[in-house]
Each structure stands twice: as structure tokens, then as C-alpha cells.
Amino acid sequence: MTAAGIGRTGGLKADAVATRVRWTHVAPTLLIIWIVSMFDKANMSIVQNNQSFLDEFGLSGQQAKIGFITTAMFLAYGFFAPFWGWVVVKLGARRTAAISLIVWAVTCVWSALATSYESFVWSRVFLGVGEAALYPYTVSLVANWFALKERGRATAFWWIGTMIGPMIMGLVVTWLIINFGWRGQFNGMAILAVVLPLPMVWALVRDTPAEHSGANAAEAQLVVTGSLENNRDAPGLLLVAGGGSWWTNTRFWLVTVAIATNAIFYWGWSIWLPTYLRTARGFSFATSGYLTFVIFGFAVVTILAVGHISDKIFRRAPLAGIGWVLAAIFVMASALAPGPEWSVVFSICALCSLQVGISCAEMLIHSVCSEKDMGASQGVRAFVALMTGALSPLMMGAILQATGNNYIAAFAVLAGAVVISAACMIKLTLEGY
Fold it and tell me: pLDDT tens, 299-332?
């Protein structure tokens, strides 16, 4: 937000103490949006284990076709992210969020009504189109509402939704399928999008503090005084002050590549995790879904801790690199573990380590791009990351089908991906990020 923007105080109250609308209205809304978005994306990890779903579409033993369902969604997700970045610039983050939520709900009903594999895949493709708005409007709202030294905690606040969503999803979606069938589960997802995050966006969120009747001038001024340009000790300040474009900013691209290779790990692993627990480790359908709750639950605590620590030390690149290296080690330990219990323990360690890496990378975005560039740059960043990660579920399915369900080979590919993520952090660590 510019100083000129602060001058348009409108309904702002000129109190000396800043209000906390950013923490009481904006942050919780983003959290709920991300929880619901993860329900809509990650529910396929449970649905694809349901025998009725597999039988209706003739997918038993067709791992590559199963993997393509999620890959198709993420290809659309990535392809349309730059478009939504442009929409955020033109319409604002709040309106963009509302439009995307309506699209989500419609596509979930479409999934419930699908009568063929092809129709079902297209419903997931259009879900990806709608959810592609997530990163551009989320990062724009964080940049518009939070000072730079608050953005670690602010990012952690919404990023835990990416873990809480799958965590709760494992319980809720499994229960819905058992009681209402896989089609009823999709109808439940549609209802959830309309009755919870959509009203919150419209009632609680505005694009900037200056537009919110509950925020005062002091809260709005925090964003200006706490911006990247006004933090003299912030890494990357000289680049921003010198007018450098994010297009030619090597730091931005290093973070983008790291997030993209992280996406290969996360979406390949999380989509196939319940299947791995059921087929390779011998857990039942219900137990594999419920174990997802436990595994993702540990990651929530990790993200909150990292957000607090990274704001304190203002160093995120070294934490990210260490996290990704540990994730590679633990995911291989999960595949090689002698028993199912140890495999679950190592899976928990792998996901927690992964979240150290990716949550710090999400926070680094605010140190390598100025506030005015967030909408456009994050559309492109999401395009690169999601187009890369989109291939992972299909790749995993193809590897498993070709190797007779050899998860060691499949997990080795995921481990290699996050080693690349860790390598991207070396330059940024040396520069003090």
C-alpha cells in the first residue's frame, strides 16, 4: 500500500493504537479458505481408494489413469494462475476470492454428477481453474495487510490450512464416503465452499486496511512503515530500491524453482499416501484415511513454530534448505522401514521436515518481491510450481504401474526433487536471506 493510499482514510478511526483486523478478520478467513481448498484437492487421495468409485469408472489396476485425474487438475491450476494474477490486479483480491469459491462449488457438484471417467476428469480440470486464484489473492492480501516482519507468522497462519485441510479431510471424507458414498462426499464439498469461506470473504475481508471499517489509520500505517522498502535490514532491499524487475530477479526464480520441485514431492506423496498405507503397508481403507489425520496433524505444529522462529531470526533460506534435506532422508526411510508402524513414524518426520522447507520458502517470497508486484509475480510463480507439481501424481502412478507397486523407486524420485529445492537455498543463504 502506498502512502497516498493511506491518505484515503475513509472510515478509518485515527486511534493511536493499531487495531488488529488483520489478525481477527483477514488471517482467519485465509485459513478457512485454504482448509476448504485442500479438502477439494486432496479428497482424491481417499476417493481413489474407494472400490465403488474404481468400479464405476473401470479404474481398478489403472494407476496411471487414476494419477492423471489429479495431474489434469493441477495442469489447469498452473495454467490459469497467471490469469488470476491479472484478475487480482484488475478486480482486487476480495472479489477474485469470491468468484473462485463459486467456481469450486459448481465443479464439486459436477464431480458428483459425472457418469464417465472423461466427465469426471473435466470436472476436476475446472476445479483447478477455479482454485488457481488461491496463491495470487492470498499473497496479495498478506502483502496489503501485514508488515514484512509479521509475514512469517501471517504466512504460517494460512499455510497451516494446507495441513489442517488434509488432516481433517482424512476423517471427514472417509466418514462421508462410508455413510453417503463418494458422490455424496462431493456434494458435501460443494455445500461447504458456499456456506463457510464465501460469506467470510464477503463480510470480513477488504483489499486494504484503508477500505475496512474496522481498521484504523494506525493499522494501515503499519503496512507502510513495515514494508520491504522501509525495512533497512531486510535482505533484497537494494534490489527493490534500485527498481529491479521481478522478471529478472534471480532470487525470485530460485525460490520459484524450489517451490516447484517441492510440489513434485508434496503432491506425489500426499495423493498416493493412503494408497501406500493400504496396499504396501497393509492398513484398511478406513485406517489409511484416519492415519492421514495423524500424519498431517504433526505438520500443523511444525508450521506454526517455523513461522514464529523465522520472524524472530529473520533468516529463512537456511531453515528451508535443512528442512528439505531431512525430508528426502525421511521419505526414503519410510519406504525402507521394516514394519508399518515405523513407516508411519518416518512419514510424519518427512512431512514435518518438508513443511519447514516450503513454509520458509513461502515466507521468502515477501523478501524477494515488493508488495506492488505480488499479484502478478505470484500468478507466474504458481504457474511454474503447479505445472511442475501437476506431473507428479501421474508420474507416481506410472512408476508404480511399471514396477509392480515398487514404492521405493517412486519415493526416490520424490527425494531427489526436494534435494533440488535445498540446493536452490544455497545462494540465498550466503546472501543472508
Answer: 777 887 777 776 676 678 998 999 999 999 999 9
pTM (two decimals): 0.73
User: Which whole-number Å values give the CA distances from 433 to 70, 225, 359, in the listed order?
Assistant: 34, 20, 14
pLDDT tens-digit readout, 86-100: 899 899 999 999 999
- Predicted confidence (pLDDT) per residue in 331-351, tens digit: 999 999 988 889 988 988 998
Residues 365, 395: Cα–Cα separation, whole Å: 28
Residue whose C-alpha is closest to residue 57's, from 104, 103, 111: 111
Domain architecture of the chain: domains with CATH = 19-430 (1.20.1250.20)
